[in-house]
């Protein structure tokens, strides 16, 4: 255990403090790596949900279009399928990969990449800052994916319920 008595530190204690600071920086980096992995997993789960909802929507849309003559005359085909098209567009936007331009200093994407472009730099402060930026970017992506999914689920369930009510109430 290292301690400083009256503002003086021995050489051995100073090196131990340096090791402690380095270990704390690594702990910060590990925290942000774990947080980044959590955001990435949540984004993958939301993509799976969007794919399942698109499959469900494609199964529901067929019977809605097939029974269009049983709906009231004021519900034309474009009016019937417009909520489903809105949901499809929202789910498409939720599934789009988003790669913002901010914070990509280490990610080299080039046709003419050279080995010197991938040099290892041992700078834990810079690494922690980049991990924080990555977490912020992933948080932003996850927020908009979740928002699109919530709106899509709501519109889809309301549309299926409304289509069922119209079919039962106005069916021949």
Q: How would you classify the quaternary structure?
A: single chain
- Summed up, the helix count is 3
Distance between the termini: 85 Å
pLDDT < 50 stretches: 1-11
Q: What do the pLDDT scores average to?
A: 77
Describe this structure in words.
- This protein is an all-alpha fold and 172 residues long.
- The chain has one domain (11-108, 122-170).
- Helices cover 71% and strands 0% of the residues.
- It has helices at residues 11-66, 77-95, 124-170.
SSE diagram, text form:
Blueprint: H1 11-66, H2 77-95, H3 124-170
Helix pairs in contact: 1-2, 1-3, 2-3
Q: Keywords, please?
A:
single chain, 172 residues, 71% helix, 0% strand, disordered N terminus
Gist of the model:
This protein has 172 residues and is mainly α. The chain has helices at residues 11-66, 77-95, 124-170. It has one domain (11-108, 122-170).
